[in-house]
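Researcher: Here's my situation. A collaborator sent me these components and asked whether they could plausibly form a single complex. I don't have experimental data yet, so a predicted model of the whole assembly would be a useful starting point for our discussion.
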Amino acid sequence: MSKKVAIIASNGGLFDAYKVFNIATAAAAADSKVAIFFTFEGLNLIHKQAYQQLPIPSGKEHFQEGFKQANIPSIVELVEVAQDMNVRLIACQMTMDVMNLQKEEFVENVEIGGAATFLHFAQDADVTLTF
Amino acid sequence: MSIHADFQLDCKGLACPMPIVRTKKAMDQLKPGQVIEVQATDVGSLADMKGWAQSTGNQYLGTKQEGETFIHYLRKANEDEAREETKHPHVVDNEEFVHALEQEGEQLYLIDVREPAEYAFGHIPSAISIPFGQLEDRIDEIPKDKTIFVICRTGTRSDLAAQQLSKHGLKAINIVPGMSQWTSETVQDQ
């Protein structure tokens, strides 16, 4: 019986993105069923334009060099890997309305759902994480 | 030591989580029992491979280090491997076998039927390596006049091997549960 991992992504920075997608892809690689619920600024992580250049917290700009040197995959690549491994990406409808975002602005195969959609998945999850 | 692997995967230069992601994908293509060799430079891959193997039920065999490269060996587990189903009637447990080993030492004829990579990372000093898949072809190497002890990781493969030896008229005894619970001396090939 495979494990279930439920992740809530509610922040839109580069560091947040790595936390979310590294854990998600590693869990998927270990045969877990993974769903990520993107809400508020977390929607940036799957936004076609925004996710290509996510902000680094001010004062931490030097990390940029470190990411390159350590050959860390880009967020664009990690999203691709996640989708390839059947990680469910769920965009929060309510925050999309608030931020006036359309489904077309997100990467392919994003599901749109409300809190209940996520809760239905998370209800019997073995691991639940919030970033 | 040179270790046979059925599949090689190059993850050099890749950072977390890519070595694990690639390993998973490659492993999906393997048959149960096959061994994969994963080359990685990510230092974290050492702990990751072990953790990943534990959560997926696959078997982490060991890691060699060559310069900056870690070479991990993993074996794809059989779905029914955890079950200790024993059909061969002649069985000794690890403890009894250790006792016999102390009494008779090198006189005992012991075959380790695990994969060469498993054997290389730790085996009983006097054990002879004949992987289960090669047993039929190498049957003539085994003395007909001796009692043959057979060991594997959990007692499952060695059970099948013992049955196979019996069919050839040999007197075989399966050691259970085998190397997974072995606490006495082992050696590692250099």
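Model: Some features of this prediction you could bring to your collaborator: Residues 18-29 of chain B form the longest helix (12 residues). The two ends of chain B are 5 Å apart (CA to CA).
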